[in-house]
Automatic annotation (TrEMBL):
Superkingdom in the source lineage: Bacteria
Protein name (record): Uncharacterized protein
Amino acid sequence: MQGGDKNIDRSKYKASLLHLPINAQILYDGLHFEDEKGFNKDSAKAYITDNKGYCVTSKESTYTAEESLDCSEIYPKRIGRIDEVVCVNENKHFYDFIDTSIPQDLNYEDYRIAGERITVIFQSGMLAGKEFEIKYYHEPKENKQGRRFEIVPQEIDGITMPDEAFKPVATDTYIVYKCALPDAYINEPKTKQGAEWEMMRKAIKFLYEREKQNYTFNGTLDDIFAKKKWDEIKEKLCIGGYVLFTDKNIEKEGLKIRITCIKDNINNPYSPEVQLTNTPPKGGISAAIQGLQYSEVLTQEQHKELVQFTKRRLRTLDVEQVMEILQNYTNKNLLRKNIPDTAAELITFLKGIAFNGDKGIDADGQAKLLDVMLKTLQSFDFDKTTETGFGITKRKDGKYQLSITDIVVWGKSVFNELEKRKLSYVGGNMVFSSCGSKIMRVEELTNAYRCYFYMDDGTTATTNLWQVGDQARTNFLILKLADTQV
């Protein structure tokens, strides 16, 4: 069993679709339920539901066949009747209608589903089937009567409704949507009323017609008997009417069976051919074609309802709401080009980036720039340990140093201080080793001098390459006009 989803507040009902009353029971005699006039208790059967409200079964029957039933057209609702229509402003299409029969405890605004706008769909009149958003006033306000609905006009099929031609009138009926009605409209166990019980009654009728053995009888009415009692039986001879059929070999207790076909005899009107059956009616090819056509119409109506819903939502948004929606979307998804903006993800430029003055970065990453301000500059393969690549890096003292393999100077080179770390040539009779150090302190001993070398001058750690037996000599270079010891 599956009910409708309209006027269902899932947070309160704990289900998205209407279900049957849980662990409920009701009697049905084949024509009437226990709370209806004409109910026959002697021929009635009890029907019960499960503990979840998903199925209904006969309490006495051993019939084990299963069947599914769609009851999506059943949902909590109140069919109201209009007592008065007020034209507030014809030019602006402002119309109100009043229903004084609304109970005191049914304030639609109090039962509005969160995030939804209350709407009405008219069930009769010029606006039958049309849905409008409304503003409901339960109590009198500003010299206006209570139980009043203010209709929000909208464009339907190119016409702004309601208007003088398409407007509600007194006695028209309507249903309110987008609100969860009180429990009495869903399930009233004492009176067995409400949408859940309505769905259960439909399911029981559906089950009753299918749980018994099916029969079909064709016969001719006895003309002598019929002529004597014609005034009594002529009103009962109608397609769809029930006949109590009894037969000691078939149904001793009697079986309510439906008249499905009547063929009148022109020459003998008191002896018509009658077909009786309790088999549920099935549609033929024409019914299937009509079903397809109905499905097409239903799809078109659903599309139209969706379009009208979108128009209503956009129409009721004020300027601030529209701006907020646009701002929330653009802030997260679009980059602005007229104000500073920040990209939250990686951006790939397939053709590069162009700057003023024919400057920029092409698609291969080659840059053409005027001034570049950097903290460091190094090649991809720069490594101090392996002495590969090149780099301009910042030292611990805050100054910068250049690490590179070879330097070719085509012009003048000026050094404030130059330290030679290695001599690797042979000149005359003197061979120099690769040793070189800077003396920071000298101590005079008895037969020698003890020299202390710099191990780290703050720029580069000094490697001790001296060996026993090496001799050292001092060296002076003239770098500018003054003598500088190196």
